[in-house]
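Progress note, project year one: complex with flavin-adenine dinucleotide.
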Amino acid sequence: MKILVVGAGLFGAVVARERALAGDSVTVIEKRPHIAGNIYTEPVAGIQVHRYGAHIFHTKSQRIWNYVQQFAEFNRYTNEPIANYHGKIYNLPFNMNTFYEMWGVTTPAQAQAKIAEQRQILAGKTPRNLEEQAISLVGTDIYQTLIKDYTAKQWGRAPKELPAFIIRRLPVRFTYDNNYFDDPYQGIPIGGYTQIVEGMLAQPGITVALNTDFFEKKAQYLHDFDRVVFTGMIDQFFDYSLGTLAYRSLRFETELVDIPNYQGNAVVNYTDAQTPFTRIIEHKHFEFGTSNRHQTIITKEYPMTWEKGLEPYYPVNDQQNDALFQQYRHLATQTAATVIFGGRLGAYRYYNMDQAIAAALQIVYNKDLFH
Ligand code: FAD
Ligand code: UDP
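Model obtained:
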């Protein structure tokens, strides 16, 4: 089979590799000047810079963990971000350290009692949105201090107007454990993420063309290839004919600073409303600060409303957009039988890296799709 993969991100690279291994001839086109999509990292002043935001690999799946080990060796980095609220520091995710910092409580029973008392404001109803979900999980004080304004900055709308699942991404623990993830496998590839995608695309049978946008020759690609695996925006594929899906975009402001250690941690969230960015990443700490002894690189992350021409980093999975996405899926089954949509944009899903890999591995051996 002749397969075109649109997008050299993680999803596209896994599909390309596995289909090439199965004997197909695979062409990958990527509109950016580099491979690896949003997991792209590059060395600057001896420090691996995560160009599109902090990426920490974590997974529950031993199978996915083993899969990525083929392409890089991982360090034992554990993500332990902190939050800065008007100059006061809190531990994340929400755990006994946070509860102590917020209320001075020292035992799980005291913390649970405090949350139960604050949750009463919900009068026992099932949480219907992010605000209610957050209050139900951690109470009103933590909601006000660490969640409300950060979330409004990140998503450009009030937490009341967002789906509850977004806050359930974060663990709530009654132990003194600052690990941001519950997954048993976690780490950062030594030497960065780009090598992972490079390794996948090095499989014989794959040709890669950078600076190449699918929409410049859409009709010809659809004619020339037996299958197209499309990891760009599904609404753009259909020329936004049913309407525009909502995305969140980001602006990254990166600086090389002439001090060895800027903030003492890889990730510091700014959870107040006044600070215009959501977080500062200090890249060297992903590698335990050993890479450059004199300088450091920091990136401030500014959320933005997505509009055409900007990068669509996050799908906005509220009911209205999920319903529109389902209409596009339906349109795809009617009109684009040889096209397979996948990845964060093609599937319109808030995938983590392990989920993007798992979703790709799920389709590549599906005989109904590739036969
Ligand atoms: P992408 O990486 O977006 O790749 C899609 C590719 O398609 C892009 O390179 C794009 O340029 C290309 N493309 C699009 N349209 C076209 C076109 N028309 N023609 C040609 N090429 C096209 N996950 C984690 O597990 N841990 C984290 O800590 C983490 N942090 C994140 C932080 C941020 C700020 C963001 C935005 C995401 C984060 N993620 C994290 C998620 C992770 O980035 C995704 O799971 C992963 O990148 C998804 O891969 P993908 O291939 O689906 O998408
Ligand atoms: N969140 C928050 N305060 C924080 C960190 C996260 O309110 O300090 C909320 C916010 O709504 C965010 C969600 O939790 O969108 C998920 O956080 P995560 O760190 O998983 O977001 P991502 O890294 O995907 O941007």
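The longest strand covers residues 247-257.
The chain has a mean pLDDT of 97.
No further modelling is planned for this target in the current period.
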